[in-house]
Amino acid sequence: METTLTVRVDGRSHHLTIDNRTTLLDALRERIGNNSAKKGCDHGQCGACTVLVDGRRTLSCLTLAVTQEGAEVTTAEGLGAEGELHPVQQSFIDNDAFQCGYCTPGQICSAVGMLDEHERGWPSAVTAPGEAAGLTHDEVAERMSGNLCRCGAYAHIVPAIQEAGR
Q1: I want to staple 104 with a disulfide (CB 3.0 to 4.6 A). Which of 18, 98, 111, 118 is the partner?
Q2: Are 10 and 34 in contact, with CB atoms under 8 Å apart?
Q3: Which range marks the domain in which residue 161 is found?
Q4: How far apart are the first and last CA of the chain?
Q5: Which residues does residue 124 pair with via DSSP β-bridges, in sequence order?
Q6: Could you please report the per-residue DSSP string of 109-149?
Q7: pLDDT in tens, 44-53
Q8: 3-56: per-residue pLDDT in tens?
Q9: Given pLDDT bands bounded at 50, 70 and 90, which one contains residue 66?
């Protein structure tokens, strides 16, 4: 069965007729031509496919595209203003927070969503009860635990996110 829908990706509307079983990741990569989100594990375990849907972190490999009618999807490509990098993107560059770069778009989208969650006061598993969460190493590491890096660039990823969050 197919469905016709409209989804906005990085500020542009896309009208698609897709199989109801198509994931958002596959719609982005195969139908829209946006290759920012990567297909890592295709099981929601690595975070390489992380995008922002209406500002919230979303694993696009586990999300059916048909559920995104009218949603605003933002990939790492759509984060910065025209001709400028988003502060998280700039911080990843400044802190050398990537090696092979495969996980980087998902890491960056997750970091942007995570910083928004932190700004809203949402606690994590390591936030002390009754206390406001700081952007400590443990706090950032816990909040980013769903995004894996096979190269092990965590020693630079966490400081990059902390810097961008200041």
Answers
A1: 98
A2: yes
A3: 87-165
A4: 48
A5: none
A6: HHHHHHHHHHHTT---TTSPTTSPPP--HHHHHHHTTT---
A7: 999 999 999 9
A8: 999 999 999 999 999 999 999 999 999 999 999 999 999 999 999 999 999 999
A9: very high
